[in-house]
Amino acid sequence: MYYRLYFLNAAQRITARDEFEAENDETAITIAGLLSDACSDLSPGFELWQGTRRVVPDVKKQAAAHPNQSSTAITLRL
Hints:
Elements: E1 2-8, E2 14-21, H1 25-38, E3 45-50, E4 53-55, H2 59-65, H3 71-77
Antiparallel strand pairs: 1-2, 1-3, 3-4
């Protein structure tokens, strides 16, 4: 599935976007978080979309399901 990641500024306006492919929402959320962390000096927030559906991470479920998921682990699975 293809996902769109919108980087947001402090005023919650879109400043940039990226598109990527991921096998499911959980992996897409992890990738989006890693990309957002890498750009956090310019963009403090993000929104993740798959088509017309906004993907909203369940923070508690994500932390429990993948407590140590790294970018290397994701890359190896793709």
